[in-house]
Amino acid sequence: MTRGPIRRLAVALAFAAAMAGCGRQEFTEAEKRTIASMSLSALAPLPLDPTNRFADDPGAAALGATLFFDTGMSRDGNVACGTCHKIDRQFQDDLPRGVGVGETNRRTMPLAGVARDPFLFWDGRRDSLWSQALAPLENPLEHAGNRAAYVHYLKRRFGERYERIFRPLPDLTGVPANAGPFGTPAEQAAWAALSDTQRDGVNMAFADIGKAIAAFERALVHPPTRFDRFADALAKGAAPAGDAALSEEEQAGLRLFIGRANCSTCHTGPRFTDNHFHNTGVPPVAGLPADRGRIAVVEEVLADPFNCFGKLRDGGEEACGELRFMQKSAPELVRAYKTPSLRGVADRAPFMHAGQFATLEKVLDHYVGAPASVEGETEIHPVALSERERGALVAFLKTLSE
Amino acid sequence: MSSTWRMVVGAIGLVALSVAFLAIVYMTAPASPEPDLARSRSSAKGLFAVSIAPEAGEPRQGDLHAWVVTVKTRQGAPVEGAAITVGGGMPEHAHGLPTSPEATAYLGDGRYRIEGMKFSMTGWWQLKLAIAAPSGVDEATFNLVL
Which among A274, A332, A377 has CB closest to B62? Predict the structure, then answer.
């Protein structure tokens, strides 16, 4: 009889444990492994960039930072890289489409971790961080300048600093103030009239501008978030608590994210991206020029004189595997766009490559419905998610911002 | 019709319905989720014995890497002078490989280096090798799970 109360207590404890088990669904071992693989602590060290021998030169990075925020690096003196890539806004601008000298056709991308991307831009039309930095400088809707003007400006404003880090400036005698292959007809004619030596000199210093900006951008990293603290605690076998805790709803969203909702198929690894291009049936924006995504720029990246095959690459050609073995003609490249990282995503509406969706809820509506693509085939299949499950996914995505 | 007969006919009907239901469930059930992961196999028409191995350790998701493909005759003699074309993709996602891998070197003893391989996602991948040798043309498909 004396064991009666103890037995009752044991039964009560077992009942309480069972109830707790009902309320909280534990992650399986496979889920725990996936969650651990998405933590920032699983991110490999930033690889070297042998194509840019100034990539890890602090002087080059400092000059790159100066150039990044210098509005003098534009045709009208009003646009810097930092105009759209705002330093206090995850290096993006909260607009559906970036606005430089004019409005562009694409959403400004955030820059954290950008040095890890094998191909840059939403469609991958450049194959290195340094060659990417050059394209907006000559885009008429962005900085709208020309390379001769940039190199004259570099000499005038930063000549001594440049020569200390990089190399002697090219001889600009006879190089007009404005000349470049993409400018006005007069600028294009002036560019064509230059000697090969003059063009090579301008191209080399212009490429160095990109290499300096890339050196700066290599320092832009993803900050750790509540999700990372949760994942790390879970991996250690500890109960995530305090600022590492996720609510029941957030955990339910995480379980869907890596499970039935199929998000982590592409939004994978510590950066929540597979660094590849997919057609997900995102509709075009009315009034914008035709946009066929990745397939439209295959020739452009192969022909870019600043690509990895070009003579301005530092180091050997063995660094050019991504370009050499790039997928060039597959049907799935039609209207394929880069999988963006989802770190910090909840704080940077609107979404998609041209700002098509104003809220994360609208993005989920799109993926739940999986409409056909206007061209090519969407890779997305419809998935049934209740209102509550959509709410849980959004709640989980917010843990990637705190 | 007597009520006993009605019950018997009804029971037979119910049994037939459940058998049909189970048959449909069985026939439409997804195939075994574990594909054959063997890294050595006969080519489709049996012309070659083909084996594959990553050149430098098991590949990691997202890394560009190389494989070595060994092609031998059924009798085990190395096959030289073969042209190997690489294809494949993810059968469950209806897309091809994220890169265009190529056979870039003959390493001797029937071994060929395939460069430019990349697995951009975790999951089930297929690697399809079309092999054109002086002795004939055949292909081999390998399953890989990352």
Answer: A274
- What is the residue range of B55's domain? 40-145
* Residue A266: closest C-alpha in chain B: B121
Kind of pairing, strands B40-42 and B48-54?
antiparallel
Residue among A266, A324, A379 minimizing CB distance to B94: A379
Check pLDDT > 60 for residue B29.
Answer: no
B78 plus B25 within the same structural domain = no
Q: Which amino acid is at A34?
A: T
Nearest residue, CB atoms, A326 vs list B61, B99, B115: B99
Domains assigned to chain A: 26-43+224-293+334-398 (1.10.760.10), 58-217 (1.10.760.10)
What is the predicted pLDDT for the residue at A17? 47
Structurally, how many domains does chain B consist of? 2
Q: Concatenate the DSSP letters of all residues of A46-111 into one string.
A: PPP-TT-TTTT-HHHHHHHHHHHT-TTSSSSS---HHHHSBTTTTTB-SSSS-BSSSB-SSPPPP-
**A260 neighbors A72 (Cβ within 8 angstroms):** no
The answer to whether A330 contacts B96, with C-beta atoms less than 8 Å apart, is yes
The pLDDT of residue B5 is 73
Residues of B in contact with A276 (CB under 8 A): 98, 120-121
Q: Is A336 left (phi over 0), alpha (psi -120 to 50) or beta?
A: beta
How large is the ipTM? 0.82
B10 lies in the same domain as B55:
no
A162, A154 contact by CB (below 8 A): yes
Write the burial class of residue A391 (CB in 10 Å: 0-12 exposed, 13-18 middle, 19+ buried).
middle
Q: What does the alpha-carbon distance between residue A216 and residue A290 come to, in Å, rounded to a whole number? A: 33
Output the pTM of the full model.
0.88
Residues of B with CB under 8 A from a CB of A: 61-62, 64, 93-102, 115-116, 118, 120-123
Would you mind telling me the total number of residues written for chain A in this entry? 402
Do B4 and B45 belong together in one domain? no
**One domain, residues B70 and B113:** yes
Q: Do B116 and A266 touch (CB under 8 A)?
A: no
Residue A332 forms contact with B (CB below 8 Å): yes
pLDDT at A337 over 50: yes
Q: Is residue B35 part of a domain?
A: no
Interchain pair A325, B100: CB under 8 A: yes
